[in-house]
Amino acid sequence: MLQKTVFVITYGRSGSTLLQNMFNALPGYVLRGENNNILSSLVQSWEALRQFSPEQIARMKIAGPLPSGPHQPWFGYEGIDPDQFGQDLAQVFTQRVLRPDADTRVAGFKEIRWHQDPELFMPMLEFLKRFMPDARFIFNTRNHAQVCRSGWWKTMPEAEVRAELEAAEGLYRTWQAAHPECSLAMHYNDYVTSPEAWRPLFAFLEEPFEGALVEEILSRKLMHMKWKGAKKQG
Questions:
Q1: What is the rounded distance in angstroms from the CA atom of residue 101 to the CA atom of residue 110?
Q2: Interacting residues of 29 by C-beta distance below 8 A, sequence separation 6+
Q3: pTM confidence score
Q4: Distance CA 230, CA 34 (A)
Q5: Computed over its alpha carbons, how large is the radius of gyration of the chain?
Q6: Cα(156)–Cα(49) distance, rounded to whole angstroms?
Q7: pLDDT digits (tens, 9 = 90+) for 60-97
Q8: What are the two backbone dihedrals, phi and then psi, of residue 40, each rounded to the nearest 5 degrees?
């Protein structure tokens, strides 16, 4: 049975795969990769249901007195429970997308696209906080100049990239300020070479700090980076 869930929220080319590798090295953890933002469609349906309540319908004088009758256009709408609907959606998402193993204690995934829909950003996180077990949110950032030179970002105007990154981080800060008890900020440039920089993450997850494991994961990453550099030079 899941004890908690963890969600790494970031933008592309932020170094979040290193975080994913670290999580998956911990006993009982399964952190999935990106899923093409499929959760957004589920959250949109939950958000539409809870925002357009039976009380609003009654005020519009469309359905008449509640409960509605079979002759009315919103027949049966007032019987829908948004919270139960959201819980069912979260359960299906966990079973079919996260797919935790029998011995999984902590499950989750990372996503790089949520900032692209600012209006849905807060409902997405609220959905997870409300319906997923002990949800924790990790906001991962990276030096903007490095991001601008990485991957597909380097094909875009730098000013446009920086504006998008700043807007994303503004969303992150807003959620963190409102929910400090379940949020943690991580900065790639701090933790990519420093094992000690990982200590707050372990505390946040209520796990004992494993310095040797951190050094092992970091050394794998650094070796991979060196290999890529050697390949380019060759």
A1: 18
A2: 6, 23, 104, 105, 106, 107
A3: 0.88
A4: 29
A5: 21
A6: 38
A7: 555 556 667 788 777 887 788 899 999 999 999 999 99
A8: -60, -40
Separation between Cα atoms, residue 84 and residue 48, nearest integer Å:
14
| Encoded tokens for 43 | 């959250």
* Side chain identity, residue 105: R
Name the DSSP letter for residue 99.
-
Q: How far is CA 13 from CA 135, 138, 161, 222, 233, in A?
A: 24, 16, 12, 16, 22
Residue 49's alpha-carbon distances to 75, 85, 125, 133, 220, in angstroms, are 15, 9, 17, 22, 46
**pLDDT at residue 66 in the model:** 65
List the structure tokens of 178. 């409102």
pLDDT exceeds 50 at position 113: yes
Please check whether residue 87 is in contact with residue 79, taking contact to mean a CB–CB distance below 8 angstroms.
no
Q: Write down the residue that tokens 């519009």 correspond to.
A: 60
Around Cβ 62, how many Cβ atoms within 10 Å? 12
Element (H, E) at 147: helix 144-148
Question: Of 32, 22, 30, 26, which Cα lies nearest the Cα of 192?
Answer: 22
Q: Write out pLDDT tens, residues 186-201.
A: 999 999 999 999 999 9
Mean of the per-residue pLDDT values for the chain?
90
Say if CB 109 and CB 8 are below 8 A apart: yes
Angstrom distances, CA of residue 36 to CA of 9, 60, 112: 13, 37, 9
- Six-digit token string for 195: 């094992």
Other residues' Cβ atoms within 10 Å of the Cβ of residue 77: 17
Residues 174 and 153 sit within 8 Å (Cβ to Cβ) = no
